Amino acid sequence: MAIEEKKRKHKESSEKSHKKKHKSITKIIAPSSPVTSVTSAAPTVATSFSEIVVKLYLHLAPMWSGKTMEGVNEQLNAFLMKYVPEVDGIVLAHSDVQFDTEKGKILYDSPFCHFFVTAKFLVWKPKRGTKLVGRINLQSEDHIGLLIYGTFNASIPKSRIPSSTFEWKINEETIEEESNDTESEESDEVAEPVSEERTRTQYGEWINKETGAGIGGEDGTLEFNVMDIIEANDILTVTGAL
């Protein structure tokens, strides 16, 4: 009985250690070169895009035998459009993949091939104090919501909208229209699509006190200062100020 119990414990410990070996698929060791800004026509203008060369330790499954590069790209694609702490930004693209050695290693009883590669990541990492431009997609009395490059979320809270320059104006006409349309909507099977302009100012909008013009102008774009950057669930949210 004692011998059987020892065998059972040894088997369980072996299975646990075997699972631990395969827990990590891809690991970024460290950026192997300094951050370099993407070249632009105006080098004096700060950019939130950077190219970073990183070194990664990959564990390639047997299914990628004979098509190694395809397997490497598959693992690198897992970083796309996610916040990666090692590069302190969101990875948008990868390129220039190079193998550090000619052959990989197969260790112990693992069928995975282990090897190092270097790759270039295009990273979006806005910095505090810089300026960004976003398109307004939501306005409320509490904040202004924006989309940067049509992808990344940004928010300007009321406390960071200068009350000396801007004020919140309630759209009274829209409220009256909605109350009048409630009865007619019951008989309509298909509702008319709501335009982007009406959605943006459905219940009101922030306006300039002097001119009375809506914030963001005709195209709804707004330049703001980056005050804080919040990382949650592999994405970045920018908090700004006017």
TrEMBL record:
Protein name, UniProt field: RPA43 OB domain-containing protein
What family classification does the UniProt entry report for this protein?
A: Belongs to the eukaryotic RPA43 RNA polymerase subunit family.
Q: Where is the composition biased (Acidic residues)?
A: 175-191
Upper classification of the source organism reads: Eukaryota, Fungi, Fungi incertae sedis, Mucoromycota, Mucoromycotina
| Entry's Gene Ontology cellular component terms | RNA polymerase I complex
- Identify the main location: nucleus
Report the domain of life of the source organism: Eukaryota
- Residues annotated as domain RPA43 OB: 126-242
Write out the entry's keywords from A to Z: DNA-directed RNA polymerase, Nucleus, Phosphoprotein, Transcription
Give one Pfam hit by family name: SHS2_Rpb7-N
Where are the residues of the annotated region Disordered?
A: 1-24, 175-202
The record's annotation in InterPro entries points to: RNA_pol_Rpb7-like_N_sf, RNAP_I_Rpa43_N, RPA43_OB, Rpb7-like, Rpb7-like_N
The places in or outside the cell where this protein is found are: Nucleus, Nucleolus
Any stretches that span the bilayer, and where are they? none
Q: Name one GO biological process term.
A: transcription elongation by RNA polymerase I
User: Residue ranges of the RNA polymerase Rpb7-like N-terminal domain?
Assistant: 56-111
Biased composition (Basic and acidic residues) is annotated at 1-16
